[in-house]
Amino acid sequence: MGVDDDAYDRQKRVDGWNQNAVSTARCLVVGAGALGNEGVKNLAQFGVAKITLVDFDEIVAANLNRCAFFTAADVGEKKAEVVAREAKKISPLLEISVKDAHIEDLPEEFYKNFDYAFGCLDNLGARLHLNAQCYGKLPLIDGGTTGFNGKVQVVAGKSACVECGLSRRDYKLLWMKYSCTGDALDFLDPKMPALPTTTSIIAGLQTAEFAKLVHGCESLAGKYLFYDGLKGETRVYTLQKRKACPVHR
Ligand SMILES: [Zn+2]
Hints:
This protein is an alpha/beta fold.
């Protein structure tokens, strides 16, 4: 086989790259929206062989500006099913399974099946749930975007977690949601501004963090990266582990 016949030849040329470690990593992707589309695309291109994708939602036309795998013909289909179908075209060896569920409804044992988790969610309640479930069990690479800005946080080992980094405003919003009806956590979520460019950058950073973790490189664990698209800057902040954080106190 010539070098041009190996789909992974060029990434194997990266110093220290271990294709076997990348291919055998079992990945949980939570959310099949913008970040989930782009993240699964990258994982499939890396040659990751096992992905589980969690999403209960259906495609609407307003998703099409930033979801790499969706077309107008897919409107009304389940997001996760379409991502799974299309990702297999990139990597025929990919085994991608779909969970048509809210992440909050999946049992604790579910997380034993994975080595890495990706938070590709658009609401804080689900992100906090995923954070609490992953903490101390498997690294979580959480992403978020709004307009030109985005954020990536890595929680690994006993590092500070997503909840450690919550602001008072986040808590206030969360309290408003929980106290509103209890069962409609997304009720007060406004339709956030969202760009395909920010989606690509943040999902790209999330999957790059995955590659770094797999290879034991220094990652963003315990830190978060803020991307300011208008200034064209990224800033990395170290998060203090909060003593009173309910996830690991
Ligand atoms: Zn914490």
